[in-house]
Amino acid sequence: MVRDSFSAELDQLRLQVEVMAVRVDQNLERMREVLATGNGDVAVVAVNADDDIDAMNVSLTERCYELMAREAPVASDLRFVVSVLRVLGELERVGDLALRVAKLAPAWDLLRAGEHTYDILLSMADLAVGQFRTALRAWSAQDLFLADELARSGRAMEPTTEQLMRELLRLEGPDAVACAVRTLTAGQALDRIADHAAIIGARLRYLLTGNPDHLATEIR
Amino acid sequence: MTTAADGEDMGMQPAMTDTDIRKSFHQQLDDIKHDIVRMAAIVTEAVPQGTAVLLDGDLHGAQELIEADDLLDTLALDTEERCYQLLALQQPMASDLRSIVTALRMVSEIERSGDLVVNIAKGARRIYGTTFPPRMRGLITQMGEESAKLFRIAIDAYVEHDDGKAAALPDLDDRLDALHKDYIQEIFETHGREELEIRAGVQLALIGRYYERIGDHAVNIGERVRYMVTGWLPEHTGAAREAARRQTDPPHIEPAD
User: Fold this and answer.
1) Domain locations in chain A as residue ranges
2) Record: fold of A2-218
3) Disulfide engineering: A105 pairs with which of A40, A56, A62, B125, CB 3.0-4.6 Å?
């Protein structure tokens, strides 16, 4: 009976992580809007929403520690709690990275100054959001197939990032470096968002299979 | 919560040996701490090496740094697995539990910092042959020193269980952030004077971010140390900010670097 109630608590925890991931996803959408329109008001909304995400992180992290201390979970239950801690960290970082891009709103004109690089940035944003949504779906369904696909995708963004770097070097004019540095800031953040999504996949794969070999996928 | 691997242990293989089991819990925890400090020492030494490789255009040194990261990755994986074994087999409480959770999170911070030094070495290779103006050399040197210092202080705080030292890290990191801003400005100005090609400018901007992120990881380590020593959760920072903000004005978006 006690274990049943513990099991229900773990299930609740899984759902709460999903809610936090949905909030991060909403901020990713805001990030994409800022990138497409330069709308500073949307960036302000994103900043506020990120503090809500941080607050969720606090309460869920505390719950994990409390569950570990109170229930001393073993086997797959322990694996679940430590995996939640890891996933929370990844979600929080994705939120921070989305904010880093959204905060470029005042530099939007500079970002657009590089015609090709700006288009690549928009594609990278689509890719990053796509990878994150796969991670979100995988977590919701605790789906090993999706988790495996994500973890195997590894550096899916790499070709696009390399393309961005090549195009940056072709920029010309007095603002070339200023435009390149802003574009790099955004590009790097988007690349890392995709990377964190892959890490969530790798962690979920470890959670579902218990195979410690999968931990190595998280090491870059 | 059930998974495909239910009924097994944490999935960590091989199982602990008799000798391991006999070893006291605290001895095992000390071993983990020892390896964390060893990993951190590798990173702390690698940062100035990365700076030297960059400024001297030392291709051989860059290769050595890149290869040395494999050891760090192996140590990280091994330490993480031993943390899980301790959690599963010893079911620690209170401060011991906090120590293991701290160790788990520190491992990934240190491992990622090592990756950033590798990135600096790779960046140095990409701009091999670039001549740095004196002010830029100075700023790179200072960023290297500050980031290594932050890392050293973070690890000292961990070894000495010094939450005061850990709490000082965000303020110390402000100096690195200020240096980074000056550095980006210097890249703009040097390019404006046509003394820097865009290829080098882009790589140097990336390298500056790597130093800045090493500092951020040191701050994160400090936050974990505070949790270990006092139970204070770093995640409280965001919640406190939220509470404060709700009583004040909406946020102002600063222009990015």
Assistant:
1) 2-218
2) Methane Monooxygenase Hydroxylase; Chain G, domain 1 (1.20.58)
3) A40
CB contact under 8 A, B3 and A216: no
Task: Assign B250 a pLDDT band (cuts: 50, 70, 90).
Answer: low
B contact test, residue of A82, A121, A196 with most B CBs within 10 A:
A82
Q: How far is CA A31 from CA A41, A87, A90, A190, B222, in A?
A: 11, 21, 17, 10, 29
Alpha carbons B11 and B7: distance in angstroms, whole number: 10
Q: Is any Cβ of chain A less than 8 angstroms from the Cβ of B233? A: yes
The mean predicted confidence, pLDDT, of chain A is: 90
Mutate to test the interface with A, among B79, B177, B235 (most CBs of A within 10 A): B235
Beta carbons of B84 and A82 less than 8 Å apart:
yes
CB of B198 within 8 Å of a chain A CB? The answer is yes
Domain ranges for chain B, please list them: 20-233
Tokens 């500073």, residue located: A40
Please report the ipTM that was assigned to this predicted complex. 0.72
Residue A68's nearest CA partner among A59, A76, A77 is: A77
Residue B68: count of CB within 10 angstroms of its CB: 17
In the DSSP assignment, the letter for residue B235 is T
Q: State the Cα torsion B194-B197-B200-B202 to the nearest 10°.
A: 90
Q: How many CB atoms lie within 10 A of CB B81?
A: 17
Superfamily of domain B20-233: Phosphate transport system protein phou homolog 2; domain 2 (1.20.58.220)
B187 interfaces chain A, CB cutoff of 8 Å: yes
Handedness of CA A52, A57, A60, A63 (dihedral sign): negative
